[in-house]
Design brief:
Keywords: Membrane, Transmembrane, Transmembrane helix. This is DUF58 domain-containing protein. With about 375 residues, the chain is of the alpha/beta class. It has 3 domains: about 1-55; about 55-165, Immunoglobulin-like, CATH 2.60.40.150; about 175-380, Rossmann fold (3-Layer(aba) Sandwich), CATH 3.40.50. Helices cover about 35% and strands about 25% of the residues. The strands form 7 sheets. The chain has a 6-stranded mixed beta sheet with strand order 17-16-15-18-20-22, sandwiched between helices. The chain has a 4-stranded antiparallel beta sheet with strand order 6-5-10-11, with no helix packed on it. Strands 1-4-7 form a 3-stranded antiparallel beta sheet, with no helix packed on it. Helix 1 runs antiparallel to helix 2 and helix 7 runs antiparallel to helix 8. Mean pLDDT is about 80; it is low at about 185-200 and about 230-235.
């Protein structure tokens, strides 16, 4: 900042020296051309002075994203809105938005605008592919100059902008698990989730209820139409664990676990959720949009961890008497020894993508291609 101010001051000093010399030459020469040159240079100095006194910080910069919710692989569009109180003429504004390092090696987004007398204008930056995570965008750099390009000035806004990109969601995750089930029938964990709906209670029929749910025997006894209500007893006793070990299939396994939990939660299922990674997050059985939002954020900011460290967290997240679905990128000997010692194999179902050849397991193996985002499929 000090160097820029020093450069600006030095340019003004040079201008004043030239202007003083021009006046001395005009007074000594005294012809019409000399006076015209002096007046013209005076006009330029006035324009430069007026351009230099307008502060760039008078611009209020507001950044908004085109959508409220982004998922991994979506194209992110950022709208930058500039507002000010006056209509002071500004020839151009060059602004730059640097992208967080969490997006990888992406070039900063630059845009040139010509506000002139405008008090408000909006510019849309070039789109970029979103990656799962919580990203913090640094402040925007502004740059402008006078009409002659002699006195350049720059300013950096102070505010940062945060963006949360959630994992890709696959609503058909239950079908993907069914396709991975041997003969589509033998896996009890899947079919209890899909088929085991038990009668919970009876209530009076109301407008909007399905006719197929009417209990005719109870209706005949009470002389009132009674409809059946169901609950899924399997999901109320289900525990879902995501084992976030470092592996090339980490993102795919995370998407599978997130999609499964979200799908069951949207159907009002109450499940226990344990997310193991660089952070360990546990959610007790409950329903509601607030819980689903908290789970989505936990998945968004999760990073993988070494398997040796994760096994220490796994001990406290295996509960007796519950069906356990364990999502993991891969299965190794240490993991199998741990879960075999702590749980009943009849209550455990592992859903993964890869396994050591020496391990004999009844895990379900999902197809990696089925959980790729659209951007990944197009650039594969």
């Amino acid at each position: 900042m000090f160097k820029k101010r020093l450069l600006l001051a030095s340019r003004w000093i040079i201008m004043l020296i030239i202007y003083t010399g021009l006046w001395a030459y005009t007074l000594f020469q005294g012809d019409t051309a000399s006076w015209f040159l002096t007046y013209f240079f005076s006009f330029i100095l006035i324009v430069l002075f007026l351009s230099s006194i307008y502060p760039l910080k008078a611009w209020n910069v507001n950044r908004q994203f085109a959508k409220n919710t982004y998922h991994d692989g979506d194209l992110v569009d950022m709208h930058v809105t500039f507002t000010r109180k006056s209509r002071y003429p500004v020839g151009y504004l060059l602004f730059q938005q640097k992208l967080p390092l969490s997006f990888g090696k992406l070039n900063a987004r630059q845009q040139l605008a010509y506000p002139l007398f405008k008090k408000k204008f909006t510019v849309t930056l070039d789109s970029f592919v979103g990656l799962r995570g919580i990203h913090s965008f640094p402040a925007i750099d502004l740059e402008t100059s006078d009409a002659f390009g002699l006195l350049e000035r720059s300013y950096q806004t102070s505010a940062e902008k945060s963006l949360t990109i959630y994992p890709s969601y696959f609503p058909d995750i239950l079908e993907k698990i069914r396709e991975a089930t041997p003969e589509n029938e033998r896996n009890a964990a899947y079919w209890t989730l899909k088929k085991n709906t038990n009668l919970h209670s009876l209530r009076e029929f109301s407008s909007g209820d399905r006719i197929s749910l009417i209990d005719w025997k109870s209706s005949a006894k009470t002389d009132q139409l009674m409809t059946r209500e169901f609950e899924n007893s399997a999901t109320s006793r289900l525990s879902v664990i995501f084992y976030g070990v470092s592996h090339p299939h980490f993102e795919l396994s995370l998407r599978a676990a997130y999609s499964f939990i979200r799908k069951i939660s949207e159907e009002n299922g109450e499940i226990r959720v344990s997310i193991l990674g660089d952070k360990t997050t546990n959610f007790s059985p409950s329903a509601g949009t607030n819980k689903l939002q908290d789970i989505s954020i936990a998945f968004a900011e999760l990073s993988p961890k070494d398997g040796v460290i994760l096994q220490e967290s796994l001990d406290s997240n295996l509960h007796d008497g519950e069906k356990i679905l364990l999502f993991t990128p891969c299965i190794d000997t240490m993991l199998m020894q741990k879960v075999s010692r702590l749980t009943d194999s009849k209550q455990l179902q592992i859903i993964t993508f890869e396994s050591d050849q020496a391990i004999d397991t009844k895990a379900l193996f999902l197809e990696p291609a089925s959980l790729m985002s659209r951007w990944e499929r197009e650039n594969k």
